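Q: How do we represent a protein-ligand complex in a form that can be generated token by token?
A: Start from the inputs.
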Amino acid sequence: MNDALALPVGTTLDRFIHRKQEDFPYATGELSQLLRDIALAAKIVSREISRYDQNTTGAVGLQNVQGEQQQKMDMIANIRFIRALRNGGEVCAIVSEEEEDIIHTGNAHAKYIVAMDPLDGSSNLDVNIPVGTIFSVYRRVSTQQEQGTLADCLQQGTQQVAAGYILYGASTMLVYTTGRGVNGFTYEPSLGEFFLSHPDIKIPATGHDYSCNEANVSFFPLGIQNYLAFCKAEKYSSRYIGSLVADFHRNLLKGGIYFYPGTDKNPEGKLRLLYECNPLAFLAEQAGGKATDGVARILEKMPAQLHERCPLVIGSAEMVDKVQKYMTL
Ligand code: AHM
Ligand code: MG
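Then emit the structure tokens for the protein with magnesium ion bound:
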């Protein structure tokens, strides 16, 4: 059954989460609380992003664990989400793009693990282009007597119990799934509430937009190069914001495909399996789309490292299938 059934557009996120919890007679409310904690941090980050402040704008002058320039907002978003999850009490460990090691929240008895990219696409911030937060939730596999472990964090994407993103764009939206469809909520800042605006999102089976960094085309695998030639022959449109959440969101609503393939120099591409590929793959599948590394299903990959990278092909099912066909010719 889909999460949005019987709940009208305009329902607040809080009420939505509460009503959905009632559908599970034995639910303890911990996952509901966790989702509320994420929504709270999202509101705070949305506020910070939408105003100009020298303390929150620009680069820090440091690199993160991936060797990328950290923006002040990267660090602020990281702190805000960690704080909300720590204070909420439902998460024992967090994996963040901004931190090399597992973050232990101090809630050793808590049931859940969160992997997150606190601010994806943050290099776009200073030019006022949309950015996002991506999150993924797992139930821990270790006992609740100890801190979260590496094994808790390195689970297959199929084990996710929830995943979603926040898009800080012309409006701020929270889109999430708990494995029963995908629902989108739009933030109304004057009321401080997210409202159900996009119930039961289904990605069109195909589309006419493709998103990739085409400057890298000569380094892409031959199958992807041939797929791009097909897109051009079909007169598809190229649409690349360079913010994964924003590109994914457009394709989710309108149909389309996003890919960030491997190259000779970076065979695993750029995006991270745990907190970029897996959560978006879960959402794509729940909306009727697909996500692969070009050939194999993303959600079945067994991660070996916290920050491992993975090629990503994601979007409308027929388009992702077509890429797979070109990759295996
Ligand atoms: P980030 O997590 O450091 O922001 O990197 C991820 C971003 C995605 O949002 C975007 O799709 C991609 O990197 C853009 O990369 P490129 O500039 O190589 O096209
Ligand atoms: Mg990022």
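The mean pLDDT is 93. Residues 3-198 form a domain with the Fructose-1,6-Bisphosphatase; Chain A, domain 1 fold (CATH 3.30.540.10).
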